[in-house]
Amino acid sequence: MRTFIHNDVQVLATQAADAIQEVLSSVEHPVLGLATGSSPLAIYQELITRHKNGLSFGAASAFTLDEYVGLPKGHPETYAQVIRNEFTAHVDIDDARVFSPDAFGTDVEGAPARYEDAIVGAGGIDIQILGIGSNGHIEFNEPGAARDSLTRIEELALRTRQDNARFFDSIEDVPTHAITQGLGTIARARQLVLIATGEGKADAVAALARGEFDPQWPATAVAQHPNLLVLLDEAAASRISG
Ligand code: GLP
After folding, report:
1. How far apart are CA 219 and CA 33, in angstroms?
2. What's the whole-number average pLDDT of the chain?
3. Is 66 marked active-site?
4. I need a surface site. Which of 9, 131, 198, 214 has the fewest CB within 10 A?
């Protein structure tokens, strides 16, 4: 795992965007893995700026990592909509090649397996952007998730619902379940870029930096990934020991 620490989030975003641009220029049909949450927003802003300066996403496909179950299609807090509003609507990626788990159709139970097949069918993810939850979850793989887990419906931890209540009128409005890529799915991406800022992430980041898989800190499932870049500010890095 390579760690890069800087207090200017713009500098962190530049590092991530450089890695993504490298994939766009070296892979014929690049497959991007997109993450929601506030942490990746600076990366999307940087990519949008680069697109205005000529960077094309025309050959790319993209897969999002997760989706709430229970919100109506088109709800502004569905992750499909968030990714569209924050990123894909502002670049030249083909809308039809931006995929997210189908939590809205008639067969929600079958959606995880279909999504897993779609990722494999696209040739796998070339570069995956990741955030991290304060309890160490990645996407919605909550503490206790199996290291080799695949895309599935997961019940959200109370802390995750509390963290995400800021996007809703009240915690009662935060869905209780989500479809999430599994830890095993995420670990199969050829390259991972994880971004975390703020003291609230410091314990989760410290667990990741210990490098051993610990089911209480799901993000540790990717600690041994051969191509993992971790972008941190000093507050998020403050409890890394050694
Ligand atoms: C949500 C998302 C995760 C994200 C996490 C942290 O739970 N499902 O993908 O990593 O929030 O979000 P933030 O970056 O806003 O702290």
Report:
1. 16
2. 96
3. yes
4. 198
**Contact call for residues 223 and 213 (beta carbons, < 8 A):** yes
Handedness of CA 7, 23, 185, 78 (dihedral sign): positive
Probe ligand 1: pick from 12, 34, 36, max atoms within 8 Å of CB? 36
Query: How far apart are the C-alpha atoms of 165 and 183, rounded to whole Å?
Result: 24
Measured at the CA of 180, the angle between CA 89 and CA 83, to 5 degrees, comes to 10
The per-residue pLDDT for range 146-184, each reduced to its tens digit, is 999 999 999 999 999 999 999 999 999 999 999 999 999
What pLDDT is stored for residue 241 in this prediction?
Answer: 87
Largest CA distance in the chain: 51
Q: Tokens 């990519």 label which residue? A: 47
Compute CA distances 229 → 20, 67, 68, 71, 225, whole Å: 12, 24, 27, 33, 9
Please state, in angstroms and rounded to a whole number, the distance separating the CA atoms of residues 117 and 96: 17
